[in-house]
Amino acid sequence: MATVGRGPGVATATGGGARPGARGAMAGVVLCEPGRLYNALQQHRRLPRLAEPNYLSLLDARTQREYNESHIITARKIEQSPTGKYLVPDSEELACVRYCVVYDCETSSLDLSDDEEEEKEKGSNGSSETENTDSSSLCSQNAKEGTAVRHARSLQHFTRHPVLVLRGGYKRFSACYHFLRTQKILWMPQELDNFQLYPVEILPAKLYMGNFKQACDQQIQKDLKIKAQVNISEQPAALFAEEGKYLHVSVPDSLEANLFSSFPTICHFIDAQLDLGAVLVFSSLGISRSSTVTMAYLMHSHQFSLKKQSPPTDTTVKKSGTG
Predict the structure, then answer these.
(1) What pLDDT is attached to residue 122?
(2) Are the beta carbons of 191 and 209 closer than 8 angstroms?
(3) Helical residues (DSSP H) of the chain, grouped into ranges
(4) CB under 8 Å to 81, separation ≥6 — which residues?
(5) Sorting pLDDT into bands at 50, 70 and 90, what band is 143?
């Protein structure tokens, strides 16, 4: 079975020849915000989840020229037959994969009515029109808007989960996450095992959550434009020396640790810093203490009470696990 990021050499079949999944019903097609794909790329267990064969199939529906210039990291180009028809990746792979994401240049809607009507009007003149188009026109060189949607609708016959179409396509994603662009095509298994993970995005371009190692990485801070940090661990971090940009709440990695009393201070700090730039909340492993604080801030910012979120209990906040 082919895996994401391990090279473009996957078995392919036309839509009519690929065998549908056992359920038979179409999985559907939905738009995917850039932040959702970004977070999917950052997931890990013991190792980055990109190393798992059945985690993510990221497919580039743009032209070969566009793909060669740059593409989203670990993305594969959707292959074409000698006659120019796009091919469907191996149905066995698609039936097992958790996320199937397709993107083109800048599609932002699932509505293809305008594109389809335009194609009908062109009819058989399509090939000659392409030949007569000014070579300086990007439209003649780039994949048409809506290409990703058309591919997603053919892929939905083979996946167990809805096929995701990246909203805004490569243009929007690369504008938000320029550091996830690459020209690299072939990824070895050990490279995926050591894939550089970034903090997950909680609020687009504003609030991030990560671990201690990520908080000490200068390049990550630069790429995400982090302007302030909230450290929820016992170990101090000295990356942000500027006064007022770093809040350290020393909390032990223990089930009995009390974060509740620090929530007002933390929420006030994040509120003040978000007006100035992005904030990173982190703990040792980026699992429990940081997620507890992040959830508390979201409840604070949206004015949700704890009673509305879960049954009242004295240990709801304190017993949140370790990390």
Answers:
(1) 47
(2) no
(3) 34-41, 64-69, 91-96, 113-122, 126-132, 138-141, 147-155, 169-176, 189-193, 212-215, 218-224, 263-274, 289-301, 306-309
(4) 14, 87
(5) low
Q: Where in the chain is the domain with CATH 3.40.250.10?
A: 12-193
**What Rg value do the Cα atoms of the chain yield, rounded?**
23
Distance CA 321, CA 313 (A): 16
Place of tokens 């070969």: 64
Separation CA 291–CA 311 (nearest Å) = 19
Which CATH class name applies to 200-309?
alpha beta
Kindly state the DSSP code that residue 146 receives in the 8-state scheme: T
Residue 128 pLDDT greater than 50, yes or no: no
Res 60 pLDDT > 50:
yes
Task: Note if the pTM is more than 0.85.
Answer: no
- First and final CA of the chain: distance in angstroms? 35
Instruction: Please compute, for residue 120, the number of CA atoms within 13 A of its CA located in the half-sphere on the CB side.
Output: 6
Selection from 187, 171, 196 nearest residue 75 by Cα: 187
d(CA 294, CA 320) in angstroms, rounded, equals: 12
The type of residue at 265 is T
pLDDT surpasses 70 at 319: no
- What backbone torsions phi and psi does residue 38 show, to the nearest 5 degrees? -55, -50
What confidence tier does 312 reach under pLDDT thresholds 50, 70, 90?
very low
CATH number 3.80.30.30 given to 12-193: no
Name 156's Cβ contacts closer than 8 Å, sequence gap at least 6: 26, 27, 28, 29, 162, 163
Residues of the chain with CATH 3.90.190.10: 200-309
